[in-house]
Each structure stands twice: as C-alpha cells, then as structure tokens.
Amino acid sequence: MQDDLSTLLVYYHFIMGRSRAYATLWAYSTLLLLLTGSLSLHASELIKHTYPETITVLKLLYASEVKAGFRYKVYAQTAKQEGHDNIAHMLTAMAASEDVHARSFKAILRALGVEAEQVDIDSIKRSRTKDNLRYATEVELGEIDRDYPAYLKRIKVEGHSEAIKQIAYAWQAEKQHRDLIKEIESGTGMFFSMLLSYFRSNPSHYYVNDVCGSTVTELPDHNCPICHNPLTTFREIPKP
Ligand SMILES: [Fe+2]
Ligand SMILES: [Fe+2]
Questions:
Q1: What's the whole-model pTM score?
Q2: What's the 94 CA to ligand 2 centre distance in angstroms?
Q3: Domain-by-domain residue ranges, the chain?
Q4: What is the phi/psi pair of residue 58, to 5°?
C-alpha cells in the first residue's frame, strides 16, 4: 500500500510539472477511484463476515458435488464398457444433476465474493460397475439424510435465503438419486444380476432440471416437483 502511494505521488509531481489543471483533475479522479475501490473492498469483506458458515458449507458442498459428478461420469463410462447401457444412462443423468448443484453453489459463492477452489478429482477410485453402484448407495447416498440437515442447520442463523433454498433443492434431488438406485441394497451377486435384468428390460428416459438438479424418468404433469419451475427447465439426457 505504501509503495502504491509513493508511486502515485511520483506520478502527481510529474504531471504537476507539466500542467497544474490536469494534475488537479487527475488527483481528484484517482482519489475517487481509491475511495470507491476501498468502499467496494469493505463491502465484500462485510459480506464474508456476515455469511462465514454459509461460505464454508457452500465450499464443502461444491467440492462434494464436483466429485460426485466426476465419479458418476467415470462410473457411466465403466458401465458402458461392461455393456450395461441403461445403467450408464442413469449414471450420466445423475452426473448431469450433480453438475447443476455444483454450478449453483459456485454461483452463490461468486455472488458472495468467493471463488470456488479447484477440486481434487484424481483420488476418485474406479472399480467395476457392481462395486461402483454399491459405493454410490452405501457410502454416498447413505449419508445425505445426515449431512444435508446438518448443513442447513449450520447456515440457518445467517439467513442466506438463496443458499438455503439451493441446498434444500440439492437434498431433494439426492433423494431422487437414491430412489433411482434403491434396488441395490446388498450388492450380492444374485441381487446384482436381478438389477441388470431389471435395467435391461426397462427402456430408459432421464430428465434433469437445470435449476435444482431434479432427476426423473418421466416428465411431471406440470411443474418441477422440487423447484416448481415450468417443464421447460428440464432437459432430456441422451444415452451416453
Ligand atoms: Fe448433488
Ligand atoms: Fe446425487
């Protein structure tokens, strides 16, 4: 800061040596810029101090959505390679939904003056479809009814309505994901073969809502069941 001021003073004396009127105009403009700059700086600091828990939770959720999206894309590729085309389709739709969640959390963070950090996706494990689905069911979707209420409770007192709304939307969409793969309970060989025959015999359509990540196999009659936006906010996810 001191260096910046010294530089500005050098400029000021340099311009003064040429034109007093121009130097005065320049000094006023610079002062104005400094003031508005520091004012906007204070505003962004104030926002960060008003929503510290909201920002922490959004950062955590953003990272977990990016990881979940990437994980489901990898799982979809594996499923396709193993010939489970309909399972690959379901996983692709779930990945698209996680991308919606990641995008909305990132947008709220940006509005709060915080840039989402780079997420480490290299550590994501790849396995066979049977194990991938078991992991998705037991580890990931098994945690949603514990984690989401805890996150919502943490940020409630700060009252950031958009963050509260989007996190509640994401929780509802995660429940849909769980329902989509609820047939996978034990991951035993016998059960997995039943699951495969179920998926093979059911032609799949998947639609994802671009606002809340709602993931459905049939379009609702009217609005989205989660965010209540019109059906135009849904897009059909093509088979990979
Ligand atoms: Fe999600
Ligand atoms: Fe999910």
A1: 0.79
A2: 6
A3: 2-12+20-46, 51-236
A4: -60, -40
